Amino acid sequence: MQSFIIFVLLLDFISPCLCTRLNNIGTQNSIYNVMNYGAHGDGKSDDTQAFATTWSNVCNSVGMSTLVIPAKKTFLVTKLHFSGRCKGKIHIQFEGKIVAPSREAWKAGESLISIENLNGLTIDGNGQGGADGDGSTWWQCSGCQRPGVLHFHSCNDLSVSNIKITNSPRSHVSVNMCNGATFSHISIDSPPTSPNTDGFDISFSSNILVKDSNIKSGDDCIAINGGSSFINATGVTCGPGHGISVGSLGKTRPNDQVSNVNVRNCTFIGTSNGGRIKTAPDTDVSVSDVTYRGVYGTCDGNIAVNLDCSSAGCHNIILDQINIKSNQQGKKVSAICHNAYGTATNTIPSVPCLLH
Length: 356
Ligand SMILES: *[C@@H]1O[C@H](CO)[C@@H](O)[C@H](O)[C@H]1NC(C)=O
Ligand SMILES: *[C@@H]1O[C@H](CO)[C@@H](O)[C@H](O)[C@H]1NC(C)=O
Known about the structure:
Layout: H1 2-27, E1 29-33, E2 42-46, H2 48-59, E3 64-69, E4 74-76, E5 80-83, E6 89-94, E7 97-99, E8 111-119, E9 122-125, E10 130-132, H3 136-139, E11 148-166, E12 173-176, E13 179-189, E14 200-203, E15 206-211, E16 214-216, E17 222-224, E18 228-234, E19 237-238, E20 244-249, E21 258-264, E22 267-268, E23 275-279, E24 287-299, E25 303-308, E26 314-326, E27 334-338, E28 340-348
Parallel strand pairs: 1-3, 2-4, 3-6, 4-7, 5-8, 6-9, 7-10, 8-11, 9-11, 10-11, 11-12, 11-13, 12-14, 13-15, 13-16, 14-17, 15-18, 16-19, 17-20, 18-21, 19-22, 20-23, 24-26, 25-27, 26-28
This protein binds 2-acetamido-2-deoxy-beta-D-glucopyranose (2 copies).
Residues 207, 209, 230, 232, 262 line the site of one 2-acetamido-2-deoxy-beta-D-glucopyranose.
């Protein structure tokens, strides 16, 4: 009899608490952990469906919701598609590791993880979690259409931080038709011999900032493609890789345009180029208003500055405070220009070849 009374009292105590908490969840922050939707997190079982179910709950949730990919777990997925429009504001807590299936088991089409049509999405990790594309079997296959790992399409006011993306078959992170995105503390790593493994591949996007990130890849650390403007890279360490590049422009679309790109406080270590602008050969894409200022370091070859422009010419090229020496003592490096117009001040090597 006594225990019965206690039981009733306890229930009375607990139930008002539970009610308030449940009421708050709807309007404050609901947590959706993939482990509660059937994910195994053992790196072997296919967790694709568990992620899809979790996403549909998150996307239908009003208010603020967090999709949790928990730390210390590995999730094999064949395809993830996080697509909006969704009802509330979404945060992905990306602390675990997502791994791609083998090439034979690949189901995802162009990217392992596609994130589309979302406004105000935040993705944040703990620096340990992220996604691995298991690219090695793809890199060997020259005839394969290789996929990427993380793709954003039509996402505005996006923030992504503290995640690792590794061994992509192709580009690691691609950003297409997004306006307003900040990527910070992103670690990208694939071998220097891996083909076409751009770190970031940005196209038809504007107001994008990549900052405080470390990119090692077999291709461009950041490629800024046609239709992009107001793209900044700040505090990025690149290498191995091909550098931070605009283009190639004009390869598939003759009207490709890129403008307002700022690369600041970036470090290039063991890269084939530093900052470069590539246009497809035989096109008349014009290049103008480009400033290289405060660039210093060493280079391996004989040519430190290469301004090789098409017949349309490059105009208003400003070189200022450049100091690039050979990495071999006593060896001279030089500059070459072709159809390049502009001015050079305080440069080592001297750049006497610019046209006025
Ligand atoms: C990029 O840098 C420019 C020049 O410093 C600045 O005006 C602009 O706000 C920056 N944009 C982003 C998205 O960081
Ligand atoms: C680059 O670094 C300098 C010196 O640390 C700092 O003053 C400047 O604000 C940085 N620029 C950007 C765009 O972060």
